[in-house]
Specification:
CATH topology of the largest domain: Nucleotidyltransferase, domain 5
Distance between the termini: 34 Å
Strand content: 15-25%
CATH architecture of the largest domain: 2-Layer Sandwich
Number of strands: 10
Radius of gyration: 28 Å
Oligomer: single chain
Low-confidence stretches: none
Mean pLDDT: 88
CATH class of the largest domain: Alpha Beta
Structural class: alpha+beta
Length: 342
């Protein structure tokens, strides 16, 4: 007889009336232990029932039904994951309380690409310890449209942390307008910085788009330099004004002009460039030079450079989100509790 992954053999001797029953595995509260272990292995490795079912079927190995899998998943595995996360979260919050004020990094990961996301998981990380301190899962129909999920996740997370007594000194996020407005109007006591990685990624994409045109294809030679210069401007500046002065100097530098009309950064810090170290300079008044300068010196972007984070960034948070994709891929749908657990 089989029951899930359990094989049970009954023996009976017709001569001596001897009977015996053998089971391939122990039974815990009327549940075969192998069933629990298989269900746990599927969830904890980021797999899915359909994948493991196809594998067992191809190898002609006895498995368990889909109904049985999701029953154990809902009643046993998800509560276990939630309980373990709460214990871990309590430890991280306790560590934050002992350390005084904290700097947090926040960002949201959607469950599908584009603007059709159903769920958005907003992750808050303590950037000093690089430990996740809170995760809020928001469903799009709770806030009307998917674009509002990021702000809602941030609001819920900050509310919970403040209720637990965490003193948030600063927060590093992307340049989401809803998040900016909320922190500017509702949380004036929290210093808000923009993440250099997000800003570098954004300006890099715009340079790539500009390089696709024939008249401005030469700007592709400056893409890496532009992104690196943004990181350098943030990490070596003691104020937002200094970061802006260093950032705007790149418009002159790419034209082989290394003196600037700014007292905070009057000239480039590199040595005189000899011929073998010279760059493919952009010629003034050309389409490539003018369009790239307009892009780099766009008033809104320059204004945001003033708030770029000089020390902290969210690269660890991005790495966590890339790991999360292994457990909740964007091509697979999950229920709310299943999504939160993964």
């Amino acid at each position: 007889m089989t029951m899930g992954t359990l094989l049970r053999v009954s023996q009976h001797c017709p001569r001596c009336e001897f009977t015996n029953q053998w089971s391939s595995q122990p039974v815990v509260n009327n549940i075969p232990a192998g069933d629990l272990q298989l269900c746990a292995a599927v969830l904890f490795t980021g797999s899915s029932f359909s994948q493991i079912s196809k594998f067992l079927g191809a190898c002609n190995i006895q498995g368990l039904s889909e109904q049985c899998f999701y029953r154990h998943h809902a009643k046993l595995l998800i509560p276990t994951v939630n309980r373990q996360w709460k214990l871990e979260q309590d430890d991280v919050i306790r560590e934050a309380l002992e350390g005084g004020s904290v700097t947090l990094g926040g960002d949201m990961r959607a469950d599908s690409p584009g603007h059709s996301a159903k769920y958005g998981s907003y992750t808050m990380m303590n950037l000093t310890s690089n430990k996740v301190i809170d995760i809020q899962l928001v469903q799009s129909n709770e806030v009307g449209i998917g674009e509002r999920m990021k702000k809602e996740g941030l609001v819920r997370s900050l509310t919970m942390l403040e209720e637990r007594g965490v003193n948030v000194e600063a927060i590093v996020t992307d340049r989401h307008t809803g998040v900016q407005k909320f922190l500017r109007e509702e949380k004036k006591e929290i210093s808000h910085y923009f993440d250099p990685w997000h800003m570098g990624k954004g300006i890099g994409k715009k340079v790539d788009e500009l390089a696709k045109r024939k008249s401005t294809q030469d700007v592709s030679l400056w893409r890496e330099t532009v992104v690196n210069h943004l990181y350098w401007s943030a990490s070596t500046s003691s104020s937002g004004q200094e970061a802006v002065a260093k950032w705007t100097s790149v418009a002159n530098h790419m034209q082989n002009v290394h003196t600037h009309d700014n007292v905070l950064f009057p000239r480039c810090l590199h040595e005189t460039l000899v011929e073998e170290r010279s760059r493919p300079w952009l010629k003034p008044n050309t389409a490539a030079c003018e369009r790239l300068a307009d892009l780099l010196l766009a008033p809104r972007f320059v204004k945001d450079v003033e708030k770029i984070s000089p020390v902290h960034h969210t690269s660890s948070l991005e790495a966590f989100h890339r790991l999360t994709i292994r457990f909740s891929p964007k091509s697979v749908g999950f229920c709310f509790k299943g999504m939160l657990a993964r």
